[in-house]
Amino acid sequence: MKRNTLFGNEERVLEETIAKSKGQEIPHKIYKQLSKDYAKLLRQTKLLVKMSDKQQHQLSELAEKIRTKNQDLIKLDQEKNEFLGIVAHDLKNPLNAIQGSAGFLKEAISDLSQQEILETIDMIELASKQMFYLVSNLLDINMIESGKMSLTVATIDLLPVIQALTVHYRPYIEAKQMSLNLHISELKYLVSADRNMLYQILDNLISNAVKYSSASKKIDIYITKELQMVRCEIKDEGPGLNESDQKKLFSKFTRLTPKPTADEHSTGLGLFIVKKLVEIMQGKVWCESELGSGCRFIVKFPIGS
User: Which residues of 57-68 are buried (b: 16+ CB within 10 A; e: fewer)?
Assistant: First the structure.
């Protein structure tokens, strides 16, 4: 019988030796005792080898875990450096604007007209808003990733939220000579959502449509019901996105190829936050786009009862 087990050849030789010693009383007893001792030694050796293999496997697993953790640490360090670079860059410009405008007012206020003073104050206000927006986004990300984002889900009518946002963005739309059209077939669209998160999500999507659309273009918002979800589609006539931009669209600190058409501020964090907030509320969000043909952002929320 062929043996494929560990020490199989040694066991076979031992058995053959015992078989040949049969008929010789004293040698046979000696061989039999030796065989028991040898078999015991073989079992102990097998156990040690088995334990060694197990330990080697455990060491290999541990080494792999250490390697993975090391890669995670390297990635975190890269993200930290990227984060600090982006924050420093995005805070530097508004800080310079505030400092420069304040210094200008201090030195020349007696020679400025009321209109010039108001325009300088507007610049300070805009710069401070940009800083506030960036800091708010960073705090939101920290709360989301640490699991501390508070959620108060209730049944909310989506339509008034959209209507309030269209009113809010009307001056920006008119300034760019654009148009915004809301398409609905019902008077209510009840969703199960957190009101503040819902507003923040839709605000970001509409804001992006305005930012990345040029003069004389239009934005269309469609609200429909399908199965157990309410679907909101925000369609613009902006430059659209290439495949590379679409792949990283909802990533953190994303800088896309298209730029705001009127030098509007962008942190590269908005869509990352949108996706996280939508998923927290059991919804879905995605983008459909072709380069040169604008974007369609679709977001779905569970129907409220």
Answer: eeeeeeeeeeee
